[in-house]
Write a structure and sequence with these properties.
By secondary structure, the chain is α/β, with parallel strands linked by helices. It is built from 13 helices and 21 strands. It folds into 4 domains: 155 residues, Rossmann fold; 89 residues, Transcription Regulator spoIIAA; 120 residues, Transcription Regulator spoIIAA, CATH 3.30.750.200; 56 residues, Beta Barrel (OB fold (Dihydrolipoamide Acetyltransferase, E2P)), CATH 2.40.50.140. It has a 6-stranded parallel β-sheet, with helices on both faces. A 5-stranded mixed β-barrel has the order 17-18-19-21-20. A 3-stranded parallel β-sheet has the order 9-12-13, with helices on both faces. Helix 12 packs parallel to helix 13. The longest helix has 24 residues. The termini are far apart. 42% of the residues are buried. The structure holds 5'-deoxyadenosine (5AD) and iron/sulfur cluster (SF4). The site of iron/sulfur cluster (SF4) has 13 residues, from helix 2 and helix 6. 5'-deoxyadenosine binds next to strand 15.
């Protein structure tokens, strides 16, 4: 049994990590053939992609995917710790699984992801959720076959979570949920330690994948007919810093953009290390999508300092405008937290005025959620939840106003859209533009997911656009 510890997770050193090739233990290959699995994924794209690896590992063991947890022999919850509601959702699901286990004695239940990295969660599972068969963390996905097999063979709860990142495994299998767009991890972990954020503790220090491994994965995806790749990392801008002296995200984007791939995206970018080279490359290559997610978190320099964000309102705005003026028709989206400890009405008004200036194309807005073990927990907080909820509502009104205003500007324009599928009523297709806008549209000819089509915009709404293929 291994229980995680945040004090250890917090440590950062220059210890070398090894790049190892994953090899599956031959004894478990196909061992569970005929059994069904279901993975419930919470949280970000990183987790979604991890679930694609977890699913592939299970398929190597012989498991088959099902789309309903009631039909599964094995259910895995891939969890998120970012805010309290993500926590509550996972525990709610565990409650439902407990009932299911009463009816289905052989059901195997596993938990992984960011919550598994929290000692308090693991202790709760040990105490109150004894029916959970196994828990593994974000640093040892490659051990899933062994842990699962042991849980079944020994019929005993297995808790195997490392506090610190280990070596970096290449060659893990992956079953992609999609055959035209794919996620590619480029960097793991985060060293930024924003004071509200749990990620540096749950995902470990920044570790870049070697560029050759990434470029090889991209080549294979292109060969398999993929049209869009999204480079993933908690902070992609830090790519390469731990490995190379003179190769960074700008270089990687450029090397990928030169390949025959229609769409390249990347996320998420911390404003701190967004270099001019990156902006230049994004502006230069038409297949790098003009869509940048640039989380601001707050418009008040005082709050940004308390958040440990390493930039001020002014330096953020300078970067924002540099990107806007260099990358043609770029859409910039953001994340904003309201009700951070110490945020006054004046600080909040600064956030509103920053939004008025940036007129974001998309924004994810949150109320500050206290995460045990992070420095922000110790800050004094005089704002009531009711006030925070009111601020969130006021903020949402302003961001929504600009979503609609930006969308209105697209009326009559022709946008390139990648088809995702048909809408529920089946009378319209839907897909995403280069700037990541959701477009519902009609087409005289039949289309399939992954097709790229030009769509004329006929109607603008707050969260989507309507259009037609001529
Ligand atoms: N409370 C509220 N929102 C948070 N985020 C991260 N940590 C917290 C927290 N403790 C938000 C940030 C981040 C996004 C992924 O989630 O805005 O950019
Ligand atoms: Fe949630 Fe962050 Fe973990 Fe993603 S990395 S699952 S957002 S806590």
């Amino acid at each position: 049994m291994r229980i995680p510890d945040f004090n250890e997770a917090r440590t950062r050193d220059k210890r070398e990590y090894k790049r190892l090739d994953f090899e599956l233990d031959k004894d478990v290959l196909g061992k569970y053939s005929g059994k069904k699995y279901f993975i419930k994924t919470y949280g970000c794209q990183m987790n979604e992609h991890d679930s694609e690896v977890i699913g592939a590992l299970l398929e190597k063991l012989g498991f088959e995917a099902v789309d309903d947890y009631l039909k599964a022999d094995l259910v895995i919850l891939n969890t998120c710790s970012i805010r309290e509601n993500a926590h509550n959702k996972a525990f709610g699901m565990l409650g439902r699984l407990k009932h299911l286990r009463n009816e289905k004695k052989d059901l195997i239940i596993g938990l992984c992801g960011c919550m598994a990295q929290e000692a308090s969660v693991v202790e709760e599972i040990l105490r109150d959720y004894k029916f959970v068969n196994f828990v593994f963390g974000t640093h040892n996905m490659h051990e899933l076959p062994k842990i699962l097999d042991r849980a079944i063979e020994e019929n005993q709860q297995q808790i195997e979570v490392y506090s610190r990142e280990g070596d970096l495994y290449e060659g893990l299998p992956v079953v992609r949920t999609n055959n035209y767009k794919a996620y590619v991890n480029i960097i793991y972990g985060c060293d930024k330690f924003c004071t509200y954020c749990i990620v540096p503790y749950t995902r470990g220090r920044e570790r870049s994948r070697e560029k050759e491994d990434i470029l090889r994965e991209v080549d294979e995806l292109i060969k398999d007919g993929y049209k869009e790749i999204t480079l993933l990392g908690q902070n992609v801008n830090a790519y390469g810093k731990d490995l190379y002296d003179d190769y960074n995200l700008g270089n990687l984007l450029e090397d990928i953009a030169k390949k025959d791939i229609p769409r390249v995206r990347f996320m998420t970018s911390h404003p701190w290390d967004f270099t001019d080279k990156m902006i230049e490359v994004i502006g230069k290559y038409p297949n790098i999508m003009p869509s940048v997610h640039l989380p601001v978190q707050s418009g008040s320099s005082k709050i940004l300092k308390l958040m440990g964000r390493r930039y001020t309102r002014e330096s953020y705005l300078e970067l924002f405008h540099k990107i806007k003026s260099t990358v043609k028709d770029v859409a910039i989206s953001t994340d904003i937290i309201v009700g951070f400890p110490g945020e006054t009405e004046e600080d909040f008004l600064e956030t509103l005025s920053l939004v008025e200036e940036c007129k974001y194309d998309n924004a994810f807005t949150f109320i500050f959620s206290e995460r045990v073990g992070t420095p922000a927990c110790k800050l004094k907080d005089n704002t009531t939840l009711k006030e925070k909820e009111e601020r969130l509502q006021r903020l949402n009104e302003v961001v929504n106003k600009y979503f609609l205003e930006n969308n209105n500007k697209l009326l009559g324009k022709v946008l390139n859209v990648m088809v995702e599928g048909t809408s529920e009523k089946k009378d319209m297709y839907y897909g995403y533009s280069e700037t990541n806008k959701l477009i519902n549209f009609t087409s005289p000819k039949e289309l399939k997911p992954g097709d790229l089509v030009d769509v004329e915009i006929t109607e603008a709404k707050t969260w989507s656009l309507d259009g037609k293929v001529k």
